[in-house]
Design goal:
heterodimer; A: 530 residues; Dimethylsulfoxide Reductase, domain 2; Rossmann fold; Barwin-like endoglucanases; 19 helices; 31% helix; 17% strand; B: 348 residues; alpha+beta; Ubiquitin-like (UB roll); Alpha-Beta Plaits; 5-stranded mixed beta sheet; 3-stranded antiparallel beta sheet; 8 helices
Chain lengths: 530, 348
């Protein structure tokens, strides 16, 4: 997030697109509701009637996969009515003229044709968003998990720039992070192209810096992103994989494909607290510990670094994850004192020395407060919102990026006439390894379901609660129907928490060519009564 | 700014501040039951009454705006008597089963009864009897312990925006129920439980677990989504028995159903407790010692690296685990194994 959660309450307008915030980020949603109570106007763009719609000034029910067109059409309308922020565009951005040209064809009428949202509502959204003094954009996987996910994010950024809503308080471009420490895992260099602090592995100066810090020669070759590892495992290029605290055998789109890939490995090691679907495929399973049993830090969506503290001892012979990684590291090399245990505070200090944005953060400070990076010095209070002076590009200006219309890879046809979209529900989390082991949560949400619009249900003679077989070109699952107008006609929704009816057996692994994300949010399926 | 005098002390507060807020700024303790600074003032419990120069009767400080030159008394004999009577009236219709009540040690009414030394009650008489059986797996209601402070109703409406509960009936029959007594439409966030000043609302999972004695409190960060809520784990021995959150945290003490009630996985019997090795493809897992497992993993990874090069190995670190673990993991792959094939599930 460029801005902070607390600032949401100060928004005059909010635009939530591709985020079912009340179910996936319930506490961030409280701030959105507070903003509405304070008089803010809320625009929600989502094919589903998500709970936030109840609080919205305007709900745009666009077709799945047409987010960028919707955003482009809104921007076209902003320009047509002269509502753009001319000062901001002149002083803080580049590439504007070319960008304006790219919007010409995206009239509200064209938007209506592609997205299904009326031209009138597109204009209304343009006025609400562009007239507000402070307007914030909020999105999640509904924007990113598409073949044109990167385009969608560019479109969100363009809208913020066009209206001068970035680099100031209570505005901004705010991706809501789906997991407790996605932000931190990225910050720490858990990505194939960057070291900790987003420092590029193929930049010779950066590489030299890390070679000196770690005392080892390093590879300048960008590594494989997770989504491409599947292909590399199947082709035999990737022979050994170490999975730490993840369950890709249930969370990967087109899971049967990835399970085949895991089975093709010479060696798979999984470190986890449960025998997950992925661990079952492993050659070695290493029992780590839960967050209640360890010391460390997590970094939240708003770049807030916070302490994790040990409350209880671990069961049986489970070991601290840090110790496990450290032991294997040392044994691979045959170096290092095996009886010496790694100290989380010292490791944090090592990162802080390598990444200026974290240089002012230490365990001593975190004992008393939490800090939002960038926090460059020990007396720096942390940063509530980013880019108040400059953007992190050469020259310090933000760049408009033209976004063309790209359709989803797999659209409905005669054989597979429905669009399937997936997501989470309030009572479960991701692959359910934690929540399905919590009695209350499992009691209120015990089984998988597929949401089907009443019109479609009537057409096929389906009643609520009846069992259906849902199939795509990749697989088939059996689950109960929930007849509901939460989904529009021709669109069905399945939560992906349930291994016994795993939505990701159906989803598509078509990939965004730029950031390598898979299109979990749109694929074509058919429904059959059982 | 506004200047006023409270208990002979001068204080300056911003326009719109209440007398209660001004007093709290001076660290003056005025008892309250229905007040929560995160919610709108309500004025139901009458415990925060104060005497203000020029006003004939005591007024509730939580709903009275401070004005310039106001002279306030918070602690007179009259106020003491009135407050004590209020507590007595509340207790006259309360089960007073503190020995076995889940709220003990964390109950405002209990503290007030103690503070005012109420051992006997002048107001003997009939007691309410709201017999209600709850079927939901998260929240237990004991409506006979409700003091009608309205905090649960207000937090559900003002903060959660759900409005799952409201007031019904009048006087002796008054109670908090779902609209028209229909089924509860609830997100089970438990905000209501967290603000309840008595044992009227509690977590079902807490039942029978230690209340305060011997309980360890550990401040930490929630492990579910990216909101990063501050939570406090309550544990006894090696068991986590309750999760709550402090009102002065950045999430203001509010949590969701997963954060508040989804903690049983920690002490699940399914937890992995010993390393497992499958020595042959298609074979069974065998239990191993840590030394065996570490050496085996190191050996197999090294063999692949020696034979096929470092890029034949890859690692997935975790958006669920700590910064320090992720740092060490990617460092292992980059500096010890020699490949940048390291990623995590940010895209899923």
């Amino acid at each position: 997030m460029t801005n902070s959660v607390a600032e949401i309450a100060e928004n005059e307008a909010l635009f939530v697109i591709g985020s079912n915030t009340t179910e996936n980020h319930p506490i961030i949603a409280l701030r959105m509701k507070e903003a509405v109570a304070n008089g803010a106007q809320l625009i929600v763009a989502d094919p589903r009637r998500i709970p936030l719609v109840k609080f919205a000034t305007l709900w745009l029910r666009h077709r799945p996969g047409t987010d960028a067109v919707l955003l482009n059409a809104i921007m076209n309308a902003i320009l047509a009515e002269g509502l753009e922020d001319k000062d901001f565009i002149a002083n803080r951005t580049e590439g504007y003229d070319e960008f304006v040209k790219s919007l010409e064809t995206f009239t509200p009428e064209y938007g209506q044709e592609i997205t299904g949202v009326s031209a009138e509502d597109i204009r209304k959204a343009a006025r609400i968003f562009a007239s507000a003094k402070n307007a914030g954009l909020y999105y999640a996987m509904g924007i990113t998990q598409h073949v044109m996910g990167t385009n969608n994010v560019h479109a969100v950024g363009n809208l913020a720039m066009l209206t001068g809503n970035v680099g100031k308080r209570a505005a901004g471009v705010n991706p809501l992070r789906g997991q407790n420490n996605v932000q931190g895992a990225c910050d720490m260099g858990g990505l194939p192209n960057v070291y900790p602090g987003y420092q590029k592995v193929d930049d010779p100066a950066v590489k030299a810096k890390f070679e000196q810090a770690w005392g080892k020669p390093l590879s300048a070759k960008i590594g494989l992103p997770a989504t491409e590892m599947t292909g590399a495992m199947l082709s035999g290029h990737l022979k050994g994989l170490y999975v730490f605290g993840e369950n890709p055998a249930l969370s990967d789109p087109n899971t049967s494909h990835s399970v085949k890939a895991f089975e093709n490995l010479e060696f798979l090691v999984v470190q986890d607290i449960f025998m997950t679907e992925t661990a079952k495929l492993a050659d070695v399973v290493l029992p780590g510990v839960s967050f209640a049993e360890k010391e460390g830090t997590f970094t939240s969506s708003e770049r807030r670094v916070q302490r994790v503290r040990k409350a209880i001892n671990s069961p049986g012979n489970a070991q601290l994850d840090l110790d496990i990684i450290d032991q294997i590291s040392k044994r691979i090399e045959g170096q290092g004192n095996l009886s010496e245990k790694p100290d989380p505070a010292a490791i944090f200090a090592e990162v802080a020395a390598l990444w200026p944005a974290l240089a002012g953060v230490s365990y001593a400070r975190l004992e008393k407060e939490s800090l939002q990076w960038p926090c460059p010095t020990a007396d720096h209070p942390g940063t509530e919102f980013l880019f108040s002076e400059n953007f992190s590009r050469e020259g310090g200006k933000a760049l408009f990026t033209s976004v063309p219309f790209v359709a989803s890879k797999e659209l409905p046809d005669k054989e597979y006439p429905y669009v399937l979209t997936t997501g989470r529900e309030l009572f479960h989390y991701h692959t359910g390894t934690q929540t399905r082991r919590s009695s209350g949560l499992n009691a209120v949400a015990p089984e998988a379901f597929v949401e089907v619009n009443p019109v479609d249900a009537e057409g096929m003679g389906l009643v609520d609660g009846q069992k259906l077989t849902v199939s795509s070109r990749r697989g088939s699952i059996s689950l109960k129907a929930r007849v509901s107008d939460i989904v529009p006609p021709q669109v069905v929704f399945i939560p992906f928490h349930y291994s016994e009816a795993a939505a990701n057996l159906l989803t598509s692994d078509a990939m965004d060519p730029i950031c390598k994300i898979m299109e979990a949010k749109v694929c074509a399926v058919k429904l059959e009564l059982q | 700014m506004i200047n006023l005098t409270i208990d002979d002390k001068q204080i300056e507060v911003a326009e719109g501040a209440t007398v209660l807020e001004a007093a709290r700024k001076l660290n003056i303790d005025i008892p309250t039951l229905c007040h929560d600074p995160r919610l709108k003032p309500y004025g139901a419990c009458r415990l925060c009454i104060v005497e203000i120069g020029g006003m004939a009767k005591p007024v509730t400080s939580c709903t009275t705006p401070a004005t310039n030159g106001m002279v306030v008394k918070t602690n007179t004999a009259k106020l003491y008597r009135l407050r004590k009577t209020t507590v007595e009236l509340l207790l006259s219709d309360h089960p007073n089963d503190c020995m076995t009540c889940i709220g003990t040690g964390d109950c405002k009414l209990q503290e007030l009864a103690y503070a005012y030394g109420i051992r006997e009650n002048r107001f003997q008489g009939a007691m309410r009897d709201h017999n209600r059986v709850d079927v939901n797996p998260f929240i237990t209601r004991e409506q006979n312990k409700c003091v009608m402070c309205g905090l649960c109703v207000r937090v559900c409406e003002e903060v959660q925006g759900v409005g799952a509960i409201g007031y019904a009936e009048r006087g002796f029959e008054a109670k908090v129920i779902p609209p028209f007594g229909h089924d509860l439409k609830c997100e089970f966030c438990g905000q209501c439980v967290s603000v309840c000043p008595t044992g009227a609302l509690s977590g079902r999972l807490w039942s029978g677990k230690p209340r305060m004695a011997g309980v360890k409190f550990t401040d930490t960060t929630c492990t579910y989504c990216g909101c990063g809520c501050n939570i406090t784990l309550r544990s006894t021995g090696d068991q986590v028995i309750r999760i709550d959150s402090k009102p002065d945290s950045h999430n203001r003490g509010w949590l969701c159903v997963k954060g508040r009630f989804g903690f049983e996985f920690i002490n699940s019997a399914d937890r992995l407790t010993t390393p497992l090795i499958r020595r042959q493809k298609g074979g069974e897992f065998e239990q191993a010692t840590w030394d065996e497992a570490y050496d085996y993993v190191a050996k197999r990874l090294s063999e692949i690296k020696d034979k096929h090069g470092a890029d034949a190995l890859g690692g997935l670190c975790s958006a669920r685990c700590t910064n320090e673990e992720n740092y060490l993991f990617q460092k292992m792959f980059r500096a010890r194994i020699g490949t940048n094939n390291v990623d995590h599930c940010a895209r899923y």
